Amino acid sequence: MIHNSWLNLACRMQIKQHFHNFQAAIIQFTRIPIKSDHLCGQHFTDSVNYLPLVGLLIGALAACPVVFFSDAISPTGLAWLLIILGIVLTGAIHEDGLADCCDGLFGGSSKQKRLDIMKDSTLGTYGVLGLIAIVGSKVAMLSELPTDKLLIIFILAHGMSRLSPLIIMLKSRYTEYAPSVKMTKQSETNTQVLLIIAAFMLLITLSLLPIPISILLILITFVTPVLLKGLFEQKIGGYNGDCLGATQQITETLLFMTAACYY
Length: 263
Fold this sequence. Notes:
The chain is mostly helical. The protein has helices at residues 2-29, 41-46, 51-62, 64-69, 75-90, 93-107, 111-119, 125-144, 147-160, 164-171, 185-188, 191-208, 211-236, 241-262. The longest helix has 28 residues, at 2-29. It is globular. The termini are far apart.
């Protein structure tokens, strides 16, 4: 009896810890208002592992117009509405990283110059063009998807695309100026949580979509960060927060593109 009581208590404490980490992830990566009085620094340190689950939440909330307005507005208008809602929910945190990454990687002539440009809040030509290309591509791809497939693809893409930055964080080295998104030694030892979440999301994908498109989406999710990792290491010697935002945006766009081509 005593042994079972301790096990039950430990299980409840673990569940509570995971829930607090998830709450910290929502606070850190979205604009959804949540009280943080009961959270500590360690919750925010470990919260990065829960980013894919935050993506599913964002996707589900932003996809509401598909349920209520799909018959009332055009496919292009619906696609724009989905993209705008996603930006509002995240505060454009990933889009900002993409723009800074484009400016830095392609506007600087040396590693330090690229890092300095990425740190500068001023938006340059490459950043503007990168945002136009990504947002325009998303709208074009989403407007091509059948309405009955749009909901599940949109939600899954938001979750799966947030696995890609974590792959870079596990496989590459941090450089420069954004400690809030650095993979610390503590969170490195907590990779089993990330692996469980990744397996959970992949099983969802395989169960909700046909096998061919599921395999294609999974390949995109894992191959994209590998390719971008090589680019980031060549240009700045590793990754920073802007690189992670760019990885999420590029992966999400490629997932939409793959789904649009398949259907």
